[in-house]
Amino acid sequence: MLGTAATLTETTTYPGLAELPHFNPDDDRDPLHPAVAELRAAVKEADAVLICTPEYAGGLPGSFKNLLDWTVGGGEIYGKPVAWINASSVAAPTGGRDAHDSLRKVLTYAGAKIVEEACARIPVSRAVVADGRVTDPDLRGRIAVAVKRLREGV
Q1: Record's Pfam families (predicted)?
Q2: How far apart are the C-alpha atoms of 100 and 88, rounded to whole Å?
Q3: Which residues partner with 19 through β-bridges?
Q4: CATH number for region 5-152
Q5: Is 121 helix (H, G, I), strand (E, B) or coil?
Q6: Residue 13 region, left (φ>0) first, then alpha (ψ -120 to 50), else beta?
Q7: Do the beta carbons of residue 99 and residue 135 sit within 8 Å?
Q8: Rounded CA gap, 133 and 111, in Å?
Q9: 86: left (phi > 0), else alpha (psi -120 to 50), else beta?
Q10: 61 φ, ψ (degrees, to nearest 5)
Q11: In the chain, at which end, N or C, are there fewer CB atoms within 10 A of the end residue's CB?
Q12: Which pLDDT does position 1 carry in this prediction?
């Protein structure tokens, strides 16, 4: 997630995916589970959201879809600029396309503002990732362009 307007270059990574309970519309009411409240607060505070998720079994991983489900009911993502870059390997058959199609569907339903110019397919092989960071300068540059376009869409 991108930071506030005063610090647009500041980014925050959401670390709470594993703590989110399974989505149940009956539980989407106050008092919210603390992990859900934290997620919604982070989305609300961010000026924009950049998503990077792998494709799994032809779509979004279930745990990530669960996260998205929790963002719908609170409305924090409504009107929020969003974009995505892929995390698929170079050899992935669809390059993350099916996950991106699923993202588009869910985010459109939730009323997010998709910044098309910032959505990018940038295949990354495991060989250029160390300690969770892309090390290849060309790929880092392409990712930086996507982030810049998302900032411009805010």
Answers
A1: FMN_red
A2: 11
A3: none
A4: 3.40.50.360
A5: coil
A6: beta
A7: no
A8: 31
A9: beta
A10: -60, 145
A11: C
A12: 47
- State in Å, rounded, how far the first CA of the chain is from the last one: 12
Q: Are 126 and 89 in contact, with CB atoms under 8 Å apart?
A: yes
Cα angle 132-11-89, degrees, rounded to a multiple of 5? 35
> What is the per-residue pLDDT across 45-67, written as a single tens digit (0 to 9) for each?
999 999 988 888 888 999 999 99
Alpha-carbon distance of 142 to 123, in angstroms, equals 11
Q: Which residues pair with 48 in a beta bridge?
A: 2
| AA identity, residue 69 | D
| DSSP code, position 116 | G
Domain ranges, ordered by start, for the chain: 5-152
Pairing of strands 81-86, 113-114: parallel
The 8-class DSSP code of residue 76 comes to: T
